[in-house]
Every structure is written in C-alpha cells, then in structure tokens.
Amino acid sequence: MHASDAGYGLWLLAAINAAFFIFFAWSFYKPLTRWDWRGFGMFSAFVVALFAEMYGFPLTLYVLGGWLSANYPQVNWLSHDAGHLLEMWFGWRANPHFGPFHIASFVFIGGGFWLLSTAWPVLYRAQREGRLAREGVYARMRHPQYVAFVLVLTGFLLQWPTLLTLVSYPVLVWAYARLARREERDCLSRFGEDYVSYMQEVPAFIPRRRRGPVRSAGEAR
Questions:
Q1: Which of 61, 120, 167, 200 is the one with CA 20 to 30 A from 159?
Q2: What are the angstrom distances between the C-alpha of 65 and each of 59, 78, 105, 113?
C-alpha cells in the first residue's frame, strides 16, 4: 500500500490543516505580550507536529508497528483510520470518527476555542484601558487563555495520539503554568494590592462553584 493510498504523504493537506487551526486560534487569541506569543508559539508547534503525523508521515505507527501488529492482528495498521489509536486499542471497530474518544475530542477542542473566544474580548478591553480583566470569564479564573489551550491540546491528543505529542503534552502544560506565574509577577508589579486581592478571590485555573453574585469590574475596583 502506498502512503497516499493509506492517507499519508499528503503534506499539502497537513500544512492546510495546521495553518487553519493556528489561524483559527490566532483569530480568537491575537497575542500581544511576549507571554502571549510564547504560549501561542508552543500551541502552534504542537499542532504542526500533530498534523505532520496525521497526514504526512505516521512516525508513531512505524515505531510501534511491530508491537501493534503482534498484539492487535485484527487491525490494519497501514490504514489511515488506525491513527485513531485509542479507538483501535479499546476495540471500536466502527468508523473511528464516530468513536467515543473522537467525540470527546470535539468537546474538548470546541470548549477550548469557545473559552478563547470568550476570554479574549475581556482581556483586550482591559489591556486597552490599562486595568485588570476581572469581568466575564476572568471573574471565574485568572488564566482562561492557558486553560483554553490545554483543553484544545487534550482534545487533539484524544483524537490522534502520537509519540511526539504525548511527550510534548506534559511539557506544554508545565510551560503554560510557568508562563501564568510569570504573568502574575508582572501583574503584581503593575497593579500591586489590586492584583493581590484578585488572586485571593479568583483561582488560577479551575473555577470554584459560585456561591453568590459575581462582582462587576466597577464594583471590584
């Protein structure tokens, strides 16, 4: 079977898909600060590595091909559908695009992009006005943009896990957490006690259950 017959070697398609998702994320995120660009750059590298294997060269299937064939002889590991490894491992024999992991991946990816689209206008207005972003989703978590990126990366990992993305995923999560801490140090130097109060009221990544009405930006100040 030729690579193109198996759905690989399609480098133009890989480039188009990577460019689409990178541009889609940029249209919601529009990085401004150096921290924004670093976070966006790491996301872009992950997406490029993912689609290079999804449509270009299936490195993971070649490296694990012997083990996979020996343990799952009923699966045609040269086919493109076999790249949906979680569906194959857990015995989903129907179209993998309708498998549970693939559907869950759309929930994570869609949720991540929704969070980006919701957070960006709030942050943009606050940056233009030289104040803290404390309304909208920023009233529930301090770093929704990094949470959004992790949700999207998790979705891609569920949909098409590869050796490169599996290795880079925890590194990226750690890097995003570190970028968030650096951002906070910058905000502490700019906003002082206002940001200390904000940190005490709002968690960094995982929102608390609401126990009362959320204060508006004017009330917070």
A1: 120
A2: 9, 9, 24, 34
**pLDDT above 80: residue 161:** yes
Q: Which of 107, 130, 99 shows the shortest CA–CA distance to 217?
A: 130
Structure tokens at 155: 């979705």
Which ranges in the chain belong to alpha helices (H)? 11-29, 34-51, 59-63, 65-71, 85-89, 100-129, 144-159, 163-191, 193-201, 217-220
First to last CA, the chain: 65
**What does pTM read for this prediction?**
0.85
The 10s digit of each residue's pLDDT in 56-115 is 999 998 899 889 999 888 888 888 888 899 988 888 767 888 889 999 999 999 999 999
Cβ neighbours of residue 201 closer than 8 Å, sequence gap 6 or more? none
Following CA atoms 165, 171, 177, 183 in sequence, which dihedral angle do they give, to the nearest 10 degrees? -100
Q: Which residues contact 36 (CB under 8 A, 6 or more apart)?
A: 29, 145
Q: What is the pLDDT of residues 109-146, one digit of tens each?
A: 999 999 999 998 998 899 889 899 999 999 999 999 99
Q: Name the nearest CA neighbour of 58 among 44, 78, 72, 43.
A: 78
Among candidates 47, 31, 49, which has minimal Cα distance to 39? 31
Cβ atoms within 10 A of the Cβ of 142, count?
A: 24
Give the closest residue to 115 by CA, choosing from 134, 154, 135, 143: 143
